[in-house]
Design brief:
Chains A, B: In the C-terminal section; belongs to the class-I pyridoxal-phosphate-dependent aminotransferase family. Chains A, B: Keywords: DNA-binding, Pyridoxal phosphate, Transcription, Transcription regulation. Two copies of one chain form a homodimer. Chain A has three domains: 90 residues, Arc Repressor Mutant, subunit A, CATH 1.10.10; 237 residues, 3-Layer(aba) Sandwich (Aspartate Aminotransferase, domain 2), CATH 3.40.640.10; 101 residues, Aspartate Aminotransferase, domain 1 (Alpha-Beta Complex). Helix content of chain A is 39%, strand content 12%. Chain A is built from 16 helices and 13 strands. In chain A, strands 3-9-8-7-6-4-5 form a seven-stranded mixed beta sheet, sandwiched between helices. A four-stranded antiparallel beta sheet of chain A has the order 10-11-13-12. At the A-B interface, helix 5, helix 6, helix 7, helix 8 and helix 9 of A face helix 5, helix 6, helix 7, helix 8 and helix 9 of B.
Chain lengths: 478, 478
């Protein structure tokens, strides 16, 4: 024990020095330390005003780098738990913030109130350790050092023209979708996108059918946008237009890779949906969230391309291709909706920051974005193979097979797991520090299919191996 | 005429070489050229596929820098009007985009569909030529070169903690408002802010009273957020709670500096509004959009501070303090609304990009933001004085007096203008290339006060002088 620790025998310091961090959990050490220290402070109001050990002393005690400690301290200073004093030193804040229990969370898409680390097998997340931060920083710096005057002038509320052009080019090259730059609208993600669609293309409260199971947040997003949602159970080919209520004005589907089952909608079903939309004068929103990550075979081109962008609004995003931190998505509109959308946006303006847009445009135009996607595709394909090999021999528990695309596997329950139900298994896994989403928790209709989602894209082989071992032990001792 | 021009005798090139740019209009030359060329292309579908003069040749003909021409070409390439070919050269696109007339615009807060330059006397706009782009680029580069892992991890949907902390510190120093970081929520501007308030703090369709005259876009923003707006005519002290319908659940006011008249709400009226809110269990949204620009005397502290953040939500923005391109605003919530807001945001997630947030946080924490505000304050104070001196002797036309704060002057109509009405004068000014907003166009109720808004902050002395001369001639020849 260092001399500093001997001088300060308070509970807090003792707890801190006794802390044991797990080097193999896949959770960064600084995040573990931040979380542990935050919990200590919440549990111990008497620590208010107390001085924390210097970062060097704590780092020595915990055998971590000093950077790990200063990162944790800085985070908690930013959150208001800790403060610094002009005389030097880091102290517990005099009035600790929000000791109240955290706000209730949405079960499946929780957004906790302080930054936390995602755990395996969280699906739908790119590996942020592979985020090309140096390139990205350079594009940001270049775009803003001598900004195009138009950036600071009256920006087009549809978004920065060269970003819209770059998206157009990307869709032509990667998704077989031909459109004009004029049809591309930059959004602040799916929620913003549905909000704009509701205002420009649908009557108030219009009925929109969605896939069940599907994206768990969809209901909240549509409700917040004034759209009435009607979940419709999918079959082995996806959503069947024969199952749509007659008053349906729109459907949102994930034809390239159904979320979360991974089903690719066959051509016959695609054509049937387009026929339905034409007959009913209805709208299809094609949510194409990660189709670029295809590991084998030719991807089916976007449904919007098959339709010639007549009845289909194509919705894309950079959250999975690059980072959710960007919070940038886009819509590609049928030509007849361009003017109504301009009118809708003209009344309120855009909600999307211009700051990332020119940088993202040059990142795409330079070819570095495509290089990044190809690199991620190699990583993710390798990780999927690795996870499958790590989980080999569990056939009685998990029905797994290689998936030609995507960022997670959707496992059916084997005979040994069938008695438990996917939600109970998910709860048990949570107690072991695993995020193992239940397929049925993505459904609103009764009698939902059972399964477990195994996200692999965001985790390296070490993290996947540790998590697979934990899962193996868990399943065998249920 | 250059040899190049002699070789190409098409209409387009002849029109281009005949173009006359106005060096004294206050509109950048590249923007004038872009606009003129765009209009030529729209008017002349036969130009499709035609080769444009090399930038050097056109620059020589127009006596402008080559950069002016390449900036205009690049912009129109981005918009799809022009294209380049592998063999070199710039060409008119084969299929010119959107030759249809532009979408109808909101009269007072128009967002045109292509980047354009703001004209004097556009109010509510900072001078973007003074935007600290080198500093800003450096902060962006630093924040993203070695990003804090939490930036790419699970960001708090209330926003980046150190930005929320920096806003807290700014409000304490500049606006006399004490709050906890936990009460600050980062938004994508006013529309996003009202949308969040509607979801977290108001019943669906709740009646919100607004100031009349007021912000012309407000009605659209509230409607898009599911709030029912009731404009209420203000008197010389601002909005009077005695005029509020009994079913009012909330009011939005600009007590520090009423938009657009510039009235500062006196303390007695502030207290009366707080009493009203307490008695009715109602909510006040304090829209504090540019109070930092105060040139004389002490600013009245924020109403939210007087209230101790019990009944008042404070709404701020960086659009006028720094740049509308950021599209970043914030709310400061009463403590009792923090948990409902977390619940509301948890269901859909945030719409705000993380990209600018750490850079803005360090820009503020470094003190450079405060330096920038003080610098802008000096510029704007000087510009107001300059504009008043340039318009001296027009007392029969414009009732003008020095304003201790703000970014525009609100002029009453003198006896010589009274017969015309402010909207007619505004229309006439438009034809002369002046943006001269009518006060009555900011009102929805009949019998609105008459006046003209003279924004000066965004324009340098040369532009103000030119515009003041144009205005003088216009007023005297009405």
């Amino acid at each position: 024990m260092s001399s500093f620790a001997k001088m300060h025998q308070s509970n807090l310091n003792a707890s801190l020095f006794g802390l044991s961090l797990d080097r193999h959990s896949g959770v960064p050490l600084h995040a573990q330390l931040t979380q542990a220290l935050r919990e200590m402070l919440r549990a111990d109001p008497a620590a208010a005003g107390e001085r924390l050990p210097p970062s060097r002393a704590l780092a020595e005690e915990l055998s971590v780098s000093r950077m790990t400690v200063t990162t944790a301290y800085d985070q908690l200073i930013a959150e208001g738990y800790l403060s610094t004093r002009p005389s030097g030193g880091t102290y517990v804040a005099e009035d600790l913030p929000h000791l109240a229990p955290p706000a209730p969370r949405d079960a499946s898409h929780s957004q906790p109130h302080a930054a936390q680390t995602w755990l395996p097998f969280q699906p739908g997340l790119p590996d942020q350790a592979l985020f090309p931060h140096r390139l990205w920083a350079r594009h940001l710096e270049r775009a803003w050092r001598n900004p195009d005057p138009a950036l600071l002038d009256r920006p087009d509320p549809f978004g920065w023209p060269s970003l819209r052009q770059a998206i157009r080019d990307h869709l032509a090259a990667w998704r077989g979708l031909d459109c004009a730059t004029e049809q591309v609208v930059i959004t602040g993600g799916a929620w913003d996108g549905f909000d704009l669609i509701a205002r420009a293309a649908l009557p108030p409260g219009a009925l929109m059918a969605t896939e069940d199971p599907g994206w768990a947040t969809m209901g909240h997003v549509l409700a917040a946008s004034g759209i009435t949602e009607r979940p419709v159970r999918i079959d082995a080919e996806g959503l069947d237009p024969a199952d749509l209520p007659p008053e349906t004005r729109a459907v949102t589907i994930t034809p390239s890779r159904h979320f979360p089952t991974g089903i690719a909608m066959p051509l016959t079903r695609r054509l049937a949906l387009l026929d339905w939309a034409r007959e009913r004068d209805a709208l299809i929103v094609e949510d194409d969230y990660d189709s670029e990550f295809r590991y084998r075979g030719q991807p089916l081109p976007a449904l919007a391309g098959l339709d010639g962008l007549q009845r289909v609004i194509y919705m894309g995003s950079f959250s999975k291709l690059l980072s959710p931190a960007l919070r940038i998505g886009y819509l590609v509109l049928p030509e007849r909706l361009v003017t109504p959308m301009r009118t809708a946006i003209a009344t309120t303006g855009s909600r999307v920051s211009m700051v990332p847009q020119p940088a993202l445009a040059s990142f795409m135009a330079s070819g570095e974005f495509a290089t990044h996607l190809r690199r991620m595709r190699r990583h993710y394909a390798k990780r999927q193979r690795y996870l499958l090999s790590e989980l080999a021999g569990l056939e009685d528990y998990l029905q797994l097979q290689p998936d030609p695309s995507g960022m997670h596997l959707c496992a059916g329950l084997g005979p040994a797991l069938a008695p438990f139900g996917d939600r109970a298994i998910s709860e048990r896994a949570k107690a072991e520090g695993l995020t193992l989403r239940a397929l049925s928790s993505h459904a609103r209709l009764p009698g939902a299919p059972q399964g477990l989602l195994l996200g692999y894209a965001a985790f390296d082989e070490r993290a996947l191996s540790t998590a697979a071992n934990t899962l193996r032990t868990l399943l065998k001792t249920l």
